[in-house]
Design brief:
The complex is a heterodimer of chains A (351) and B (509). With 351 residues, chain A is an all-alpha fold. Chain A contains 15 helices and two strands. In chain B, strands 6-7-8-3-9-10 form a six-stranded mixed β-sheet, with helices on both faces. In chain B, strands 16-19-20-13-21-22 form a six-stranded mixed β-sheet, sandwiched between helices. Classes of the chains: A mainly alpha (351), B alpha/beta (509). At the A-B interface, α10, α11 and α15 of A face α11, β18, α14 and α16 of B.
Chain lengths: 351, 509
């Protein structure tokens, strides 16, 4: 990888019409419309917040620091699961097992804590278990060559089975050390502590995706797998690693869930999957339109949470949040496809 | 062929995209029962014109005259286009290889159905058989389309488009690069068929980059440049050189530096007893600064040879030496580490990252070099990309534009730049100018010449004998995986190569 051409300025010998100068302007300055598009979801999020803060039935409950803290703290776990969905999604693959794996990891972590295992060890156990399932997914997909959708669907079902077998359907809540539960429910500087964990995880994922070659490579994989192989990328290894990353993130989410809930509910995993997918798909409608990205995922998680919380406070029936999540998933997928096409059309018209 | 009455007339058709005038008052006449070629470089407006005729893009101004009736060009919708008798066969494959010929004819046209929308298979087959007969296609309705030769598959696509026409003189067939996917030896089959249809009164608007085909099949040609008609001339007034001049505004030969640097003596790559899939015991040497051509028909193993040298297909046997050192290839990474680069034939499926930006495409084989102290230097990568775009003559809205928004020729230049920036010692090129217009072709030849001057050894696979004759210092003739002959400059001529290929193919093995 060393033989990179330095500047040699010999022009193509057969230059026909002069190449239009590529000005800084044309390449740098984003259009006003582009900015609006990139931040539309943020504006919508603010709009939802403002609406529920002014709207009569919720104006006294929604904008309170208590509610906002619940909102931020409660979404940290879901946001990490959404990031777990995001990584394989960039190379065009689905991981349907992240919810179930996060659920199992939280159950295992809580059981370990309640039987007296040291906190750091229990956390590592959860993360390691998540990573192990990620490796299983990776092997099924890259070695056995099972379609990722099917492989992770199968693994998710088995993991759900393990959870039920292990817990008998009962929550694990006894003997959780106070340090864990206080971490999950306490604040630093007025911000729930789990939000700091999320921030650290999000920065790490953003760094890997946007500032390392690995991030560029998995984008290439999502764009054209054969071309990726022919520029020398180890496609199977890279693809497998995205599932390992997803499993590891799911394990982290599981451990955080124990702190957040003060235990582990065996049914919690199932509730993560749909909103996590909705947020990951909606991410393509924000910050970097047409591309799945970390910032967009966080905005989407918050947007869905604010919407659900506000609706909840108005006294809407619980099924309404199912409508919201389902619709968000569909709109997210539709928008991602539409914005991708639009980006291409605009560039074509300008050439 | 007598010039009948006008089947189609265009009057002042214009279209602007923002500030860009894609078509500027285009007017020409197409006579009934003729093959009329539409030519022009990338971005000349011919795709826009076709889209207007198809009703996909709305014109800004102009009129269409179809068999005497005048229509406002702005009012053409897909259904109006169909009523006016326009039938299209697009460049992209729109047939289904694993379905039967009868199914292929019915899809997009309609199955013969009875009560309850049940497909009446027997009638369907009979209808298909009649259609095949009418268009002179030697195939059975029940046959899988993929089992036909590529030329016949294209003829099925043409038949599908034309089958509901009552009479050949009713409509206008628009063919967009119909031979792009055909091997060289099959092209004349399709051209013969088209001439036959024209003989029965079918009017054909034929869009192609390949000038030889146009000269072989067309009765007249219209050349577009920068959205305006350069000329509309009858065949008799056209020659190859004249067309090139009209399209690019200069001659092709002049575009390739004739002062070909002599290859240096140092051997860069030595291949012995290479065996991989179709390739049998190939052995040859490549010298520094040499262009070594590989001529062979489709299926001769020419692409496999290149892929094997890049480690993209495993070697069954054989020995490679690069600059005297033994070379062991486990995969493309090893080849790249040794300084070998490969630009595959099928750009869309094997080279391009269409939804990624031009700069991301340019840096994909060199991303590691921008990884400095734990960060990707995005700004450096983009700056370098702008430099490369200037140097390689890549025309795009910006380096941030998605690759798929570029024209084919510019995408191909991106592929070349991606690899050439690595300063490879050996560059493997598979059909580097396929589906590329004449102007971009000349630029690509210039790039090849420049790489050679820098000492790179190039192996060039091409089914275009003219291209081989123009660029190569030496050429290998490949037949069914075996190198059967070798020709050296100045004995490489296009007719000579064609002859060698045909001869070698005629000898039974």
């Amino acid at each position: 990888m060393t033989a990179v051409e330095t500047e040699d300025s010999a022009p193509v010998t057969t230059q026909s019409p002069p190449t239009p100068a590529i000005t800084e302007e044309s390449s740098r300055r984003p259009s006003a419309l582009g900015v609006l598009e990139a931040y539309a979801l943020v504006v919508l999020l603010v709009g939802v917040g403002v609406f529920f803060s002014l709207y009569g039935p919720t104006s006294s409950t929604f904008p309170t620091s208590g509610n906002l803290q619940v909102l931020f703290g409660g979404q940290a776990v879901l946001a990490i699961v959404a990031l777990a969905v995001l990584v394989p999604l960039i190379c065009g693959e689905f991981d349907l097992s992240v919810g179930a794996v996060a659920g199992l990891c939280s159950v295992v972590c809580a059981s370990a804590l309640s039987s007296g295992v040291a906190v750091p060890l229990a956390v590592l156990l959860a993360i390691g278990l998540g990573m192990a399932f990620g490796i299983v997914n990776a092997l099924l997909i890259t070695r056995v060559k099972i379609n990722s959708f099917i492989a992770t669907l199968g693994v998710a079902a088995i993991v759900d089975g393990i959870v039920t077998q292990k817990t008998g359907g009962l929550a694990v809540v006894s003997n959780i050390p106070a340090i864990v539960t206080s971490f999950g429910s306490g604040n630093w500087l007025g911000i729930p502590r789990p939000a700091y964990v999320l921030a650290a995880v999000a920065v790490a994922v953003y760094y890997v995706l946007a500032h390392t070659p690995y991030g560029r490579y998995i984008q290439a994989l999502g764009s054209n797998r054969e071309a990726a192989r022919l520029v020398g990328l180890r496609t199977d290894l890279l693809l497998g690693l995205t599932f390992v990353a997803a499993g590891t993130l799911a394990g982290t989410a599981g451990a955080l869930q124990v702190a957040r809930a003060g235990g582990a509910d065996p049914r919690v995993g199932a509730t993560f999957l749909l909103p996590a997918f909705a947020a990951a798909f909606l991410s393509a409608a924000a910050i970097k339109p047409g591309k799945y990205n970390v910032g967009g995922t966080l905005v989407a998680v918050l947007f869905l949470a604010a919407l659900n919380s506000g609706l909840n406070l108005t006294g809407a029936e619980p099924y309404v949040s199912q409508y919201v999540n389902g619709a968000a998933l569909l709109i997210g997928v539709g928008l991602a496809a539409y914005l991708g096409r639009k980006r291409l059309r605009q560039a074509t018209a300008r050439r | 062929m007598t010039d009948g009455p006008g089947a189609l007339g265009l009057h002042g058709v214009s279209k602007a995209y923002g500030p860009t005038q894609a078509l500027d008052g285009v007017s020409f006449e197409v006579a009934q029962g003729t093959v009329h070629a539409l030519l022009g470089g990338n971005g000349c407006g011919k795709s826009t014109l076709i889209k207007i005729l198809a009703g996909v893009v709305e014109a800004d101004a102009g009129e269409l005259e179809v068999r005497g009736g005048r229509h406002d060009a702005r009012d053409v919708t897909p259904s109006v286009a169909r009523q006016l008798g326009f039938r299209f066969v697009h460049q992209q494959r729109t047939t289904f290889a694993d379905m039967s010929v009868a199914d292929n004819l019915a899809i997009g046209h309609g199955f013969v159905t009875g009560a309850g929308r049940r497909v009446q298979w027997r009638e369907q087959r009979a209808h298909a058989a009649a259609t095949l007969e009418r268009f002179g296609i030697d195939a059975k309705p029940s046959q899988a389309l993929g089992s036909l030769t590529p030329a016949r598959q294209t003829m099925v696509a043409v038949a599908r488009a034309l089958q509901d026409q009552q009479d050949a003189s009713d409509g206008i067939l628009v063919l967009d690069e119909p031979t792009a996917a055909l091997p060289a030896g099959e092209v004349h089959l399709l051209l013969d068929a088209l001439r036959g249809y024209a003989g029965h009164g079918q009017t054909i608007l034929y869009v192609s980059h390949r000038l030889d085909e146009v000269l072989a099949v067309a009765d007249a040609a219209t050349v577009l440049r920068d959205g305006a008609v350069k000329t509309t001339s009858p065949r008799a007034a056209l020659t190859h050189d004249r067309l090139v001049e009209l399209i690019v505004g200069r001659a092709l030969e002049a575009a390739v530096a004739t002062t070909a640097a002599r290859p240096r003596d140092a051997t860069i790559l030595e291949v012995r007893n290479l065996r991989s899939a179709a390739v049998r015991d190939a052995g040859f040497v490549l010298r520094e600064g040499e262009v070594l051509g590989v001529a062979g028909l489709l299926g001769s193993g020419r692409s496999t040879l290149l892929r094997a040298l890049f480690g993209a297909v495993p070697l069954e046997r054989g020995e490679l030496r690069l600059a005297g050192q033994p070379l062991l290839l486990q995969g493309p990474r090893d080849a790249m580490a040794a300084g070998i680069a490969y630009v595959p034939e099928d750009r869309i499926s094997e080279g391009a990252f269409g939804d990624l930006s031009v700069d991301e495409n340019l840096s994909m084989a060199t991303v590691g070099t921008y990884w400095v102290r734990g960060r990707l230097r995005h700004r450096d990568a983009r700056g370098d990309a702008r430099g490369l775009m200037r140097r390689y003559g890549i025309r795009a809205a910006s380096e941030r534009a998605p690759l798929a928004s570029l024209s084919g020729g510019n995408q191909q230049k991106v592929m070349l730049a991606r690899w050439m920036r690595r300063r490879p010692r050996v560059l493997l090129l598979d059909e580097p100018t396929q589906g590329v217009d004449v102007g971009a072709r000349a630029e690509i030849y210039g790039l090849v010449r420049r790489a050679v001057d820098a000492g790179t050894g190039i192996i060039l696979v091409s089914s275009d004998a003219e291209e081989l004759a123009l660029l190569c210092d030496r050429a290998l003739i490949l037949r069914r995986g075996v190198i059967v002959d070798e020709v050296e400059r100045p004995h490489i001529t296009d007719s000579g190569l064609e002859q060698l290929l045909l001869e070698t193919e005629a000898v039974p093995s």
